[in-house]
Amino acid sequence: MSTSHVASQAAEVSSLTLAEFRLLASGSSVEHEGRLHQLARRFQKDGPILPWTCQDNQEDKEAAPVTLQEVLAGAPMGLGFDVELKLMDCRSSTPQERTQLLERTLQVLKEHGGDRQVVFSSFCPEACVEMRQMQSTWPVFMLTALAQAHVDPRCRTLQAASQVAIEFDLDGVVANNEKIFEEADQIPVLTNAGLQLFTYGSANCDSSLIAKQISLGVTGLCTDDVILCLKAVFDSQMNERGNSLHNFSEFFDEGLAKEQTQIRQIAVQA
Q: pTM of the predicted model, to two decimals?
């Protein structure tokens, strides 16, 4: 969001040019449609809206924004990407907006992605369905926070998200793990259909909760603590197989981590 110095109005970032957005991110103001705008955000849930400065090599500042093309060019080819297709939360996106976003994203990946492993994901069911219709090269996952108050019923439950994934030939669902245990009976619905269930959230930094998810059939884990997560997967495999792997390096050599989780493949969200 960008806010005006003149009045408390907001302009959608998507209405700006890349040059204007980068200027805003540097802390400067930009004149747009007759008003001066400053990039701003709410840093705490109930806190004030404050200027949001993104600059490289400055203490307590976020890195300057880069494009997907720039990230692809600068990252090792062995690094996989989860490309989240972000659309407006405060209003419904239009077909034209989604088409522009999806087509441009696909163009960049086709021109600069090479053989890199990529998955698409989105909290917008329409974006997931339309991306699947546009291409079959890369997997598409529906993201869901499992929020009961969500205006879209498809985003409220794992059951609803599973129905979308199955009906429209998506590759799986990425769900908030804080709610996943309440719908554990829906996990086999996905896996029996040959689809994947990934999770995200604080439970993926807790070894016991990681093990519980694996036992329920979760197939992918998004985490801030990759080593802890891999060790938890390793321990789960040891308990399940009762085999003679004695150290963590053998675990990688046997490829068991890749079999049970794809967090090694999905390393960056662009």
A: 0.77
Backbone angles phi, psi at 229, to 5 degrees: -65, -45
Query: In whole angstroms, what is the distance from residue 139 CA to residue 121 CA?
Result: 9
Give whole-number Cα distances, 251 to 11, 204, 224, 228, in Å: 50, 19, 20, 14
**Residue (of 134, 133, 129) closest to 165 by Cα position:** 129
pLDDT tens sequence across 153-164: 999 999 999 999
What backbone torsions phi and psi does residue 82 show, to the nearest 5 degrees?
-100, 105
Distances (CA, A) of 96 to 93, 110, 133, 205, 246: 8, 21, 15, 39, 55
The conformation of residue 54, written as its DSSP 8-state character, comes to B
Cα gap 198→211, rounded to integer Å: 14
- How deeply is 44 buried, as exposed, middle or buried, from its count of CB atoms within 10 A (0-12, 13-18, 19+)? exposed
* Phi, then psi, of 112 in degrees rounded to 5: -130, -5
In angstroms, the CA 105 to CA 218 distance is 28
Q: For 206-240, what is each residue's pLDDT tens digit?
A: 999 999 999 999 999 999 888 888 888 888 777 76
Rounded to whole angstroms, the Cα distance separating 77 from 10 reads 38
